[in-house]
Amino acid sequence: MAGTAALAAVVALSACGAKTNSGSTSDKAAQADTSGDTIKVGLLNSLSGTMAISEVTVRDSLKLAIDEINASGGVLGKKIKPISEDGASDWPTFAEKASKLIKEDRVAATFGCWTSASRKAVKPVFEKNRSLLFYPVQYEGLEESPYIFYTGATTNQQIVPALDYLKSQGKKKIYLVGSDYVFPRTANKEIKAYAKANGMTVLGEDYAPLGSTEFSTIANKVKASKADAVFNTLNGDSNVAFFKEYKSAGLTATRMPVVSVSIAEEEVKSIGSQYLAGQLTAWNYYQTTPGAANTTFVKAYKAKYGQDKPTSDPMEAAYTSVYLWKAMVEKAKSFDPEKVKAASDGITFEAPEGKVTVDGASQHIYKTARIGKVGTDGLIQEVWNSGKPIKPDPFLKGYSWASGLS
Amino acid sequence: MTVILGQMFTGVSIGAVLLLIALGLSLTFGQMNVINMAHGEFIMAGAYTTYVLQKSIAGAGLSLIVALPVAFLVSGALGALLEWLLIRRLYLRPLDTLLVTWGVSLMLQQLARDIFGAPNVQTRAPDVLTGNITVIGGDDPLTFASSRLFILGLAVAAVVALSLTLRLTPLGRRIRAVVQNRDLAEVSGISTGRVDLTAFFIGSGLAGIAGVALTLVGPIGPTMGTNVIIDAFLVIVVGGIGQLKGSVIVAFVLGVLQSVLEYSTTVSVAKVLVLVAIVAFLQWRPQGLYTVRTRSLV
C-alpha cells in the first residue's frame, strides 16, 4: 500500500518536472509542452461514422497547412507536430479525446470539431483546462467561449445573408428541414424570427435524427406544402438520402430550390451532382472563388491529395485557422493561450476566401458571405456575395428581430 | 387525397425495406432459433458488394442486376461459414450464440472499415431508378419513386421465392421438418446438420439482397447493419417466430404506421409511438401475431 503511494508520488513529481512551469498543481490548467524543437497541436475530427464524409477533408486540410508552415521554418523556430484523434461522430468521444490531447499530449492548441454538438461537448474541457480550440465550421451563433476561436461563419455571415438572398428572389414561403441536434434547432429558431420580421412564412419544420436515411415522408411533406424554397440544415450523409428522395418526389431546383448550409464541394461529390445541380448553398468560400491565394491553395491541396479532390469552405476555414494561430503566436512570442488570445485582435491573413481579420473581442473573424449554385460538374459557382467582409455578430445584437433569442 | 395516397405508398415502401431486411432473419432466427446478431453485417456485405461491382463494372444498371446474385452468394457464403465454424457448436445455447455472433458482428464491421475506409460510401443508382412514375397526373400529381417500386418488387419476389422453396421443394420440406421436430427429423434420416447449413446460407443470402436494395436508399457504411438489425428483430418477434406470413403482414403494418405517424408528428415521435404500439401488442400477444403449433414439449 505504502509502495503504491510512493510510486504515485514519484509519477506525479516527474510529470511536474517535465512541464515548463514546475509550479503547476493538479487543479491548475494543463500546460502545453514547449520543451524540445517541436510543438504539438491536436487535430480532433470524426474519421469514422456519419460525419466522416465531411470531417476527414478538414483533417487533410489542417495537415496541408501544417506541412506548409513546417516547410517554411515552423512557428517560433519550432516544427509543428500534429496529433490526430478520431471523434468518431460521437460527442462524448470528442470530449474524451479533447481531454487526452490537452492532458496527455499537452498540445499548444487544438484544431477541429464540425457539428455544434461536438463543439458543445468539448467546450467545457477546453475552458476548464484553459487550452485553445480553433473551430473551422459555420455554426448557429449565440456562443462565445474565451478558449475557442471561430474561423467559420457565424449566423450573420451565412444564414442571415442566405435569407436576405431568398427574400430578394421573392421566395416568401419556406420549409425547414434539419438534423435533430443543436445547430439546426437553433438556426431554425433564428430563421423563424427573421421570417416573422421580414414578411416570410415558415410552412413547416422537420427534423430527422443525425444519420437517418429514411426521408420519403419528409419529401412528401415538403412537396405537399408547396413552399417557394427549402432551407436545409441537415448534416452528414443524411443529405445523400434526402436529395435522393427529393428528386424521386419530382421536386427540382427550378420548382423548389433548396438552400443548404452544410453542403460544400466534397459533399456534392459524395451525393452526386445529378441530384444537386441547380441547388443553392450558402458559404464564405468556394473552390471557384477568384484570387491568387485560392489558386495556390487549390493547387497545393490537389498536389497533396489527388487531382479529383475538391476544396471546400470548412477546409479553407481550417487551413486559415492554422495560419491565424501561427500569426497570433508570433505576435505574442509565446505559446501561452492567454498571451495568444491577447495578441489575436486585428491579426490578418490573406486567406483563399480573401483577406480575413480576427475580431479579438468575439474571437470570430470577418468574412464575406457568398451564395453559390451547384453546377453539373460538381463545382459551386458564386451567384451573389456581400461585397465586403461582414463583421462577426454571434449574438445578432445588430438585428432587432433577434432580440428575443438566446 | 394524393397526399394520403402518396403517404400510403411511402408506408408500403418502408414496409418493403423492413421486410427485405427481416426476411433472412425469419429463416435463421424464426425457423432455426439462432439469434444472429451478425445478420446486419451480412446486409452490409451485400451493400459493399454492390459498391465493389459498380467500381469494376461500368454502368449502374448492369452492376445493380449483377449485384443481386453476387451479393446473395457473398453474404450466403459468409453466413454458411459462420454456421459451420461457430454456430453449429452452440446449438441449444442461445445466450452464447448471441454473444458470439455479436462479437463476429463487431469484427466484420472493423473488417469493412479496414478494407473500405471508415467514411461511408455511395453508389450511383441507374438513371431509370432516380426518377418517378406519375400515377395520377394533373395539377396535384401523385408520383411513385421508381427506386421504391424496384425495392417493393424485389421484396415481393424474395418472399414468393422463399415461401415456394419452403412449401414445394424437398429442401423446404426438410427445413420445416427440422423446425417442427429436430429429433424426429433426424431419426427419419434427415441430415439436420446439412439442413441447418443450407438454411443459414439462404437466410444470410437474403440479407445480401437486402443490402443491395439499401444502396438505393442511403449511404453504405460499416455501421449500417447495426442501424437496421433492431427493426429486423422487431418484425420477426411481432410477426411470430417461425412464421413467414406474420413477418410479411407486420413489416407492412409497421411501415404504414411509421409513415402515417411521421406525417402527422415528427420522425422521433413516430418512432416512439411505433415502439409503444409494439410493446402494447406484445403484452396482449406475447407469442406474436402467428405461432407454429407443434407437438413438441418444449
TrEMBL record, chain A:
It holds the Pfam family Peripla_BP_5. InterPro entries: ABC_urea-bd_UrtA (IPR017777), Peripla_BP_I (IPR028082). Coiled coil: none annotated. Signal peptide: none annotated. PANTHER family: ALIPHATIC AMIDASE EXPRESSION-REGULATING PROTEIN, PTHR47628. This is Urea ABC transporter substrate-binding protein. It comes from Streptomyces olivochromogenes.
From TrEMBL, chain B:
It comes from the Bacteria. The chain crosses the membrane at residues 6-27, 60-86, 149-168, 197-220, 232-257, 263-284. GO terms for cellular component: plasma membrane. Keywords: Amino-acid transport, Cell membrane, Membrane, Transmembrane, Transmembrane helix, Transport. One of its GO terms (molecular function) is transmembrane transporter activity. Its main location: membrane. The keyword Plastid does not apply. It is found in: Cell membrane. The keyword Glycoprotein does not apply. It holds the Pfam family BPD_transp_2. PANTHER family: ABC TRANSPORTER PERMEASE PROTEIN (PTHR11795:SF447), BRANCHED-CHAIN AMINO ACID TRANSPORT SYSTEM PERMEASE PROTEIN LIVH (PTHR11795). Belongs to the binding-protein-dependent transport system permease family. LivHM subfamily. This is Branched-chain amino acid ABC transporter permease. It comes from Streptomyces olivochromogenes.
